[in-house]
Amino acid sequence: MPDDLTILRPHDSRRINMNEPHEVRYWTDRFNITERELREIISKVGDSVDAVENYLRNSSK
After folding, report:
1. How far apart, in whole angstroms, are the C-alpha atoms of residue 3 and residue 31?
2. What are the extents of the domains in the chain?
3. Nearest alpha-carbon partner for 7 in 55, 24, 36
4. Per-residue b/e over 5-33, b at no fewer than 16 CB within 10 Å?
5. pTM of whole model > 0.90?
6. Contacts with 47 (C-beta within 8 Å, 6 or more apart), sequence order
7. CB–CB of 48/54 below 8 Å?
8. For residue range 11-47, what is the model confidence (pLDDT) as tens digits?
9. 3-state DSSP assignment of residue 39
């Protein structure tokens, strides 16, 4: 199924699905980071939005 460009938000707001381009765009824009940075963070803390947010909050100190 092709990527539906009308979908602007993630299906599950608690998890980051790196297999969906629209979700990757959404989360990289929201966190103001690159896709590579998002992938690296997810490899460290998992795909939970809360875990990624906590990582970003604590790593910027």
Report:
1. 22
2. 21-59
3. 24
4. eeeeebeeeebbeeeeebbbebbbeebeb
5. no
6. 15, 16, 17, 18
7. no
8. 667 899 999 999 999 999 999 999 999 999 999 999 9
9. helix
